[in-house]
Amino acid sequence: MAPILPNTQNTVFEKKPNEVSENIADKIPTTAQSTDSDKVEDHGVDTEFLIVGAGPAGAALACFLGSHGLKGIMISSAPGTANTPRVHITNMAALECLRDIGLYEELQKLGSTGEAHMQHTRWCHSMAGEEYARIHSWGNDPRRKGDYELASPCGPFDLSQTVMEPVLVRHAALKGFKCRFDTTLVSFNEEKTGLITATIRDEISKHEYHIRTKHVLQTIAFLSQGTTLKRGTIIMTGTVPGVGVMRSPKVVLNDGDDMRVEIENIGTLINKVHYE
What secondary structure letter does DSSP report for 3? Predict the structure, then answer.
């Protein structure tokens, strides 16, 4: 008669799960351990270019660098691309640059051309109220239109940031630039080696880490700063003469300032600036 052997198979299944569970539990850190480990073991990220800002300026810069085979990381403190129109008039010089990297035709299909919506600059009491004056603008004056058309293969058009930014960010990503939203530049220091170490914060997890790079390029956010006019004031769809961030010295409008425009045979129109 054959000897009765112990049920080794059952014995294995009775003991092994507990053993495995204990081993895994020993290796899984607690939340506190994990947080401390993240701070200590942060080895950073290396990249050639770090672009701070993913608006029209930052995203376009990433596109231009990417068109030359350069790669990098683009960060933005915003949760995503623009959700309001903001900067929208796109001039011929800017469009010529975008044409060089193959984006002009795509953007042209998305924009509003001069023939349809950009014939004039208007001065009016409200968007649907009494109109005080209008002038031809953006190359639509019949006396100068031919000069504009001969000067450039691109015509200006209206393209809001809500439409432009997704196109630029997508193109930059296809060319090798990673984009991270909800991400803030905390500080940066130049090392003796010539590299720059930037401290970056993920605004969702609040985790901070380092990016080591050769170049940090920070775009100007002033042009995207939202401004509105108080109810009942004159609305002007144009730029006040003498005002601009590209002038030297820079001339900007602050909250509470008056925008004054002299209109022949009408007088002085005044807008009160209000920052949101």
Answer: P
pLDDT tens across 217-238, in order?
Answer: 876 444 334 444 344 444 444 4
CA 237 – CA 93 distance, rounded (Å): 21
3-state SS, residue 131:
strand
Cα of 131 vs its chain's centroid, Å: 35
- Cα(69)–Cα(64) distance, integer angstroms: 9
pLDDT at 242 over 50: yes
Q: Are strands 177-180 and 72-75 parallel, antiparallel or unpaired?
A: parallel
- SS3 helix, strand, coil % of the chain, rounded to 5? 30, 30, 40
State both tokens at 55: 């608006």
Alpha helices, DSSP H, located in 28-83: 31-40, 56-67
Q: 116-152 burial, b if ≥16 CB within 10 A, otherwise e?
A: eebebebbbeeeeeeeebeeebbbbeeeeeeebeeee
Q: Report the pLDDT value the prediction gives residue 270, as an integer from 0 to 100.
A: 67
Whether this prediction's pTM lies above 0.70 is answered by no
Q: For residue 222, what are the CA distances in angstroms to 126, 178, 200?
A: 25, 24, 21
